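re: that complex we talked abt at group meeting.

here r the seqs, copy pasted straight from the sheet so there may be weird spacing, ignore it
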Amino acid sequence: MNKLEEQIQEKAIELLEKGEVSAVIGWGQGWNPTKATPLFARDRKTAEKLIFNPFCFNNLSVYLPRLNEKVAILTKPCEARSIVALLAEGKINRENIYIIGLACQGIVDIGKLEAAIGSINEATEARLEADSVVVEIDGEAKKAAFADVVLDNCLSCNQQDKTYCDVMIGEPAQVPTGKARLIVPEDADATWWRTFWAKEFDRCIRCYACREACPACYCRDNCAVQSLRERWVGPRLDAKEALMFHALRAMHVAGRCIECGACERACPMDIPLTLLHRQVGDAVRRLFNFNVGEKADIRPPLEFFLKEELEKSGR
Amino acid sequence: MKTYAYYPGCSLEASSREYDTSVRAVFNKIGIELKEVPDWSCCGSSQAHKIDGDMAAAIAGRNLALASSIGDIIAPCASCSMSLKEAQIELEHDGPIRRVLVEAGYEYLPGSVSVLSAVEAAYQAVESGLFEGKISSPLLGLKVASYYGCLLVRPPKIAQFDDPENPVSMDRIMEMAGAKPVEWSHKVDCCGNAYILVDRNMTLNLVSNILNAAVKADADVIAAACPLCMQNLAERQAQMQQRYGLKRKIPVVYFTQLIGAAMGLDNRMLGLKDDLLKLIDIRRQEEIAAREAGRKAKEAEERAKEARRKAAAEKEKAAKEAKEKESTEKESSGTKEAGEAG
Amino acid sequence: MARVGVFICHCGSNIAGKVDVEAVARESASIPGVAYSSHNKYSCSEAGQKTIIDAIKENRLDRVVIGACSPKMHENTFRNTIRQAGLNPYMLEIANLREHVSWVTEDRDAATRKALDLVRSAVGKVAFAKPLTPGKVPVEKRALIIGGGIAGIQAALDIAGMGYEVVLVEREPSIGGRMAQLDKTFPTLDCSACILSPRMVDVAQNPNIRLLSYSEVESVGGYVGNFDVVIRKKARYVNESKCTGCLECVSKCPVRKIPNEFENGKAMRRAIYVPFAQSVPKVPVIDKNHCQYLLSPDPSTIEVKEGERKPRRRCGACKIVCGQDAIDFEQQDEFIKEKFGAIVLATGFNPFDHSKYGEYGAGRIPDVITALDFERMVNSSGPTEGKILRPSNGEKPQRVVFIQCVGSRDEAKGVPYCSRICCMFTAKQAILTREKLPDAEVFVFYMDIRAAGKGYEEFVRRAQMEYGAEYIRGRVSRVYESDGRLIVKAADTLAGLPVEMEADLVVLATGSVAREDAFELASAIGITTDSYGFISEVHPKLKPVEIPREGVFACGACLSPRDIPDTVATAGAVAAKVGILFSKDFLESDPMVAEIDPFKCAACGACVAVCPYSAITMEEFRGKKFAKVNEAMCQGCGTCTAACRPGAAQLKGQTDEQILRSVEAVLQW
Amino acid sequence: MAAKIISSDNLQTWIDKLTATCEVYAPSQGKEVSLFKQVKEGDKPALNILTDIPPKGLIFKQVEKILSYRKNEDGIEIKQAEIEPGRKVIFGIRPCDARSFTLTDKVFVHSDMPETHYAKRRQQTALITLACNDACRTCFCTSVGGSPAEKVGDVWMMDLGGRYLVEALTPVGEEIIRANDDLFSKSSPEDEAESLRIAERVASKMPVLEIASAKLLDELFTNEEFWIRLSEKCLSCGACTFLCPTCYCFDVRDQGNANSGDRYRGWDSCMFYQYNRAAGGHNPREQHWKRMRQRMLHKFSYFVTQYGDIDCVGCGRCIRSCPVSYDLRDFLATSAVAVAGVDMDFVGELPSEGQPRTCDIK
Amino acid sequence: MRGYSMKVSGQLRSINTHLKREIEKLSGQKLDACYLCGKCSAGCPVAPYQDIAPHVVMRLAQLGHKSVLESKMIWNCVSCGTCVTRCPNNVDPAKVCEALSRISKREGLVNSKVALALREKFVDLIKNRGRVHELTLVIQLKMASGDWFSDLDVGIPMFLQGRLPISGHRIKDLKNFKKLFEGNKEGNK
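got the structure back, here u go
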């Protein structure tokens, strides 16, 4: 157990025992050292199982809208913006949430890691050593430079010192530098993108894991895509229909998506969805000069209308 | 040092050389480098487009293409700047003219240059403070009628500069040079262009209207910014006096010549006539004297005012003291009454 | 399976002339779901309606598509028709074969094909229609009138005359509006004040009218019959109930050099003032931007060192002289919340700002004045006490030139419309000039004379023939000063002569423009404006005073430029409309409103944020939050349905499903 | 037929020969995911992996057209969709996956109302099973009635290192072997013994999970607290069901209009809200914990009651691919304790803790 | 000040839409946008010295009346832009005059030979040298007008001051420059 985890557990136990919250949402150890799993700590015993390491990839704010109790939530700096975005939309009540910000040194991208050292399903131990990730598989320690296997999002992290939280645990770490997982050619035009997405979405099995893992996709059960009446997405399983679903989702989360990449990490088919959302996000930033998750008192830009925007559009 | 492409135009090579030299001298002095557009050709002026609009745009566009490697263009001649501006608007979209240019081996990149008249460029320089500290001998007291003519500000959709009915940029420039711009009625009236050769009577009438208006406004000098205006206004004043009732001759110069004079530049580059240089001196002396007198009068008035103020204050003080005395007496009697009632 | 009946109307030759209606009726029969189809010469006629009713009964039809004219025209007619046949009136869809097809299509075959497509689309849509029932809402029988000009005054008096309560809100310290600024009125040359003042007094004395002057409407919520309005009563700093209107305070105010808005800035007023002599209410207002007392710092907020005296407020002369102790510097803006059943907009117009006319000096030449300046000048209570004088030197002008169409019929200046009143007021002003200055010459430059109105043409002719105003046809190109006089450059286009004329006074007949600042509440009230900013009516001919938000009406020049008779007429019309509304105790609400499926609602609140009528609120039921539409407030605009991501918000009668089916029906063939 | 031996080299030849006569599907490692892909002559299948995606979809298609309809003059014409003809072989299928088909067969084939598309395709397809030489971290087939060397399918094989022990289990299997008899040699008793040893070793690597009886689990139905806590972190997506070899729920949807269109059958997931939504909007499993309960009880209780088997083969894919790393074994362990009436502190504990960790299947 | 002589010959029988459309195409102006208020004529500096006023040019153009092609006004417009600046309907009468003069030349109805010479000589000069040589232009126009003696009081001093140099510049790249004159021959027929 590292020092950070000690502090986390201490804080969680304090909150629980004082009765300030009924649960602390954090991460626990999953079935494999490289797999953290969300953990709802409701007492001292479970709170002692809380962990935090570079494998805690889940965005926990996805649970907040469906809870009706006062909870504490552990959050990485970047994903705190999800909470802000939910607050902005009035989906959650600030009084019901105690936000524990965690200093984060970067989260491992399992895809990058497996590309570097092979399958890690059978890992027996995983740890960070200096600047590299060490995974022990079958008694053999496999190493990969941390910067090479860190999530793309972490490479451009600028949230370290402005985490939206009630309490911050740990010291801000240095932002790793490394290469993006997928480099879009500079001259990528519509045709390139069309071909690219046609190939990627061909894999989609429409399990909707992306949607369910997304904090902005809180419609969940009522998602327009699965509407029984108006069939926005047809029954066939092909890239076209999948694109319709993903494009519809991208439009629906436009201006609300923090581009955390939870959808991409949830995808059992490894479809690079963050790319899609980043593109839509860029458009939102450009058109509305709006950064999602920055302010809790402004509704998402596509949900209201300013007269100046009409004037700007020249109509 | 900021660099502009410089497009002199045909007249500045010949009949209006002093405009050319004064523009170069003035801009050089304020730290703007003018790079002559290599192998420039005529802009087409107001005649070419009457024959064929596309051809006119093409020959003007050639100059834009040649300038695009240097940067924004300064074209001192109003007619040139207008022709180039018009062509530039045409060239911003992909059309037949751009194709003709390409076929002849000239390429214009949309948005690569913008065209400025000398007035526009000088006005921008004034706005950004480039003239600060550069005016060594201000043209104090000199009453200047700024004459814009047609093409500096018209048609407004193409000129995109100043108010087409009451432009003020040249007046501001003249103020900066220490001169006194006069309000007058014919700032933007047409001088007849090159039509002196076509319809003399008409042009002379137009010119006389302008000159008479300037004289009526009691201007010392007319500042112009166009070689054609200059020729029309300056060269036929003797005829005007004879036939069109012009009361007196009035010097007409390029506005850059006046700025140059205010900056103390060598008159060999400015080409101002001795009469005008003398007039400038005379006006300056008069103005300095007038200002001195004004200052003294003001000081005297201030002193008188101060004295009045002091007297009034003393009077008020006395009155107040008297009142306070009265009220304290009243108060004390009031307390007494209250005490008794208690 | 639905049993749809399709009825194609010839509309005489309106539709049948371009569309093969028989073919459309024949082909329609094969559209899935269609159980019956026919065509008829005039479906809206009594006989035509009877055919429809009979066909419905005979063929057991349960929904109907009518291919005819615009639903704007006859949707209600046909709803009643099918109601008579025993169907729910909303099981109807109209395919607009006239405006959308026959009137706009040249080719007969193409028109027929398009007509059939529209019928298919309507069938596709109506197949998913559901019976709808209107709701009932009570009516609050009080009217709010915004704007106290002649329009607002007239509407207030008329509505109050019917026995209903009226609140009249005026942003200025006095009612009266533009009409109060005028000297005489055309074509009768009545004194404007003489006919207006009695009405203003009536307003003040009418027990059914509550006048809130110096007040503005802050927000409007609610819906027809039940508007919730917040009115800001701006601090007047004078207690209205104590003030007797003696105006002693005004005469003692030392701040004297404030341009008087009522005099168009051409005379001065004080910091405490009434706008004009006949002001109603005759209670002065302190202008907090100029009052020395209010501008000087509040001593209680100033910290001073020990031993130093606190500075005192400056002035306060008005408070000292007021015998009634009516001056109250502590007054604050007051917010009044009221409920109303109807709202009347009577916000008037603004004169065109002639600074856009550089060729006429753009306001820099003192002797070039506007028509409103002239009205005040020629008025005996105006700045020159009724004398026509040159502002530059106070001398009588020898020649007065009027220029018409300044800020009218000028697309380049953004006002392509005709302001309608300028021809007439120019003639009036020409007459007044000749009356007051018999020696002066009067010239009027015009483009066309538009004198349609009772006695109007005669009035203009009188100006020319009796009063000797010289009319010259041609737009003035330029006005400039020369040697202390004005030079007017124009052309007499009829004679073909250039005109260069000296003048002493030029009066610009400035047109009317919309008062856009009056509608900061626009979206809340539901106002839509035309491209010039004038309020759009629902229908220029048939609903000239209704605006798209139900229960809100407009009259006077806020709708478009108009003269006093028209303004008064529309005010009367509005009163009648309000009367009709108030004659019922309950209103039927349009059932084609939004509804939110609580099962589908994700409670994101996007609909609440976008609803322009604040008709949606968040509710909670058994721990689940969801959005709910107040059907009476909903105007059926559909904004929420567009914002709703899970598709929970649906417009009844226009559900996503219906729209998709109708689109699909067009696309499948 | 007695067991035979085939060398590794001949195995490849065998696959190549099979491709000549029928469609052969075998595991393949793609860049992003591993799955069963059709093998062309010369392709080397990735026999050492448990694919990310089960072979379920080869027989029970994720989406398939079942009929088309078209309105014409005579009325409505309905055309049943044809099943692609030709024999298929799924080569190198793991015993757990092979076993999943026998479970699904109970529903779709051996029932009063057979599912024709599935049944027909199943009949066309031969399974050549490859027993496991190793167990994954997520494997638990032994706890649900299977075994790493279970003899299931038409042909059974086991890698003995450089050579494979092969045994035909059905007449179809015999035919497959007979067709290429020359590639096989006779096996020795030692080979059989070796295979048993390997099976024993692999089985011992897996956790032994106690699974409560169907009846007891059913009684747990009313223990809402248990289900709520259990499903707290579940996102209610369909990844587990779509990657489960035994999940067979489907939905039928039309695409088209009143005049013509197609009817499709596609996988559905009981984890989806819409799965349970009834006409009129009522939803008996509106909360996701109820759906989780349905999934678990269906697999471990209802199916057992109805068909006698647990509807889970222990492949562990649901664990591997879960976006929140939910471990099905947690449910098995905790439910076992819960039915015993113990309090619920244990939820979230990992039953496999302390079990031997294993590596890639070699 | 003189009046416009308004000498318009002919009679109006119908509207020559062909000519009207050609004017619209060549000038790029919508003729019917003009409502003949006369503001262009009122402001035009040269109109008082011409035969018909600009608004009459506009009216005749609206009618497609051929007489307009014979007018002097269309030749003597100096393109000062006053009309378009003040036009309430954003119409540019100067462009209409320009279009009319081109048609006028084609139809052989030129009223002002000197104005024609001015523009043609001017363009010829550019075409041959790339730049304008003022002295050559003046001499050529003097030849066209036959008015040799006015302005000698202006010209001679200028010449003596060297402001009208005898030789002028020729641009270097004349070969490509000339292509600009040919390139568009088709477009402007």
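couple things i noticed - The CA atoms of residues 220 and 339 of chain D lie 7 Å apart. Chain D has two domains: 4-205, 214-339.
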